[in-house]
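Researcher: Next sequence.
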Amino acid sequence: MDECCADVRLEGFDRDLSIAGRVMVKNQRGHFIQKLVRIDRPILRIPTLAIHLDRQENFSFNKETQLFPIAGLVSAELNRQGKTEETTKTEDNVNEPFKPLKVLTERHHPYIVELIATEAGVEPSDLVDFEMLLYDTQKSCIGGINNELIFSARLDNLGMSYCSTVGLIESLASSSALDNESSIRLISLFDHEEIGSQTAQGADSNLLPAIIRRLSVLQSSTESESDKSYDKVAESETATAYEQTLSTSFLISADMAHSVNPNYPAKYESDHRPEMNKGVVIKINANARYATNSPGIVLLQEVAQRAAQGKCGEGVPLQLFVVRNDSSCGSTIGPMLSAALGARTLDLGNPQLSMHSIRETGGVYDVEHAIRLFGSYFEHFSELEQTIFVD
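Model: Next structure:
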């Protein structure tokens, strides 16, 4: 097992774990295709050492030797196969065709490979390679004495990914939603933010600039034959289309935020202590760890107010977060994309507790807050953008 994030914490131990990921399969036509798989039952566990045998004051472990998941017992697996330990020692693969790499059943436990193949709907021999990650099988749930909390894994950042997606969809609910739209409504969901974003599908790649560059030369939504829009673009019109698009664009970097933890109030700046279910949090940092500035805050306040024009009839509450001067500060893909694109940017997110824990806590009502905020942003940005002037 390889560690994919530096933040390996105690919460990952003694949990009911399973595996999910991508497999590459060779089909009957000799083509190699990918399939997504998830084994939906606990098959692994990383056990801690009993406290009686190691009374260290601060929990620590060796990432190379003490982070192995246990999948079962040798005797139980041999019984399943009808074998003994002696027969397994004498078995040898003879007359096998040449393979540049060992086959998967030699590199990984054969039964794990069988389980992955079953989930993929293929034979184990059809698996060529795979990328698997451990995940906690405990389901997300609603909690709190008034059912006001969400207990879940990966709220950071599936929470904001979900809210932005639903907000975009709801902004297009009306058949006339784009009739007078001069902007392109776009969300971009990236991988690998927690390990630096420097991958082909990460925020530090050319993915978003390339997509915006291609979109920027398309005709407006008033053109009837949108499928042929590229054919209508003259060379002179494309020379600075990308740069002009960025100059009138606005990027919301949506990543979960910190809620005040009542057990550690001193860790928070006294005037900036966001609470769950009190609204979306705008993140501010003087050292540009977040990309928020005053024009962006003005725009978002207007967006939050205009959310009252929706079916709910209420505006969206907002909160501010500033980290203490004597505390370290996390960051997001906001500053990274802002620097790469030169586009106006604001960082925000819903407040949560226990960020990066295997079980995080968020607010039920903040989900609605964020969805309505994103919906209002998509619906009103084109109009509001023309009212904010910055030299």
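Model: DSSP finds eleven helices and twelve strands in the chain. The CA atoms of residues 171 and 375 lie 5 Å apart.
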